[in-house]
User: Fold this.
Amino acid sequence: MIQREICDLLIQSEYGKYLDIRSVADWQQVLIVDYDQLEPLILGKQNSQRQRILLTPEPIFL
Assistant:
């Protein structure tokens, strides 16, 4: 199931851990945020090796 695959990636991320995501049901309760709300997190990690796991374990291209 695609939803489970996406959720599994979120669970591995710092953001998912911060939100305490452990299941698809948890993920469905997360409020929608826009880039402006996430930008400080993304830019704050830009020069760090940890950046790639901030939002997703997949590479982030800026």
User: Anything to note?
Assistant: Residues 2-53 form one domain. Helices lie at 2-12, 14-18, 24-28, 35-44. The chain is about 50% helix and 0% strand. The chain has a mean pLDDT of 81.
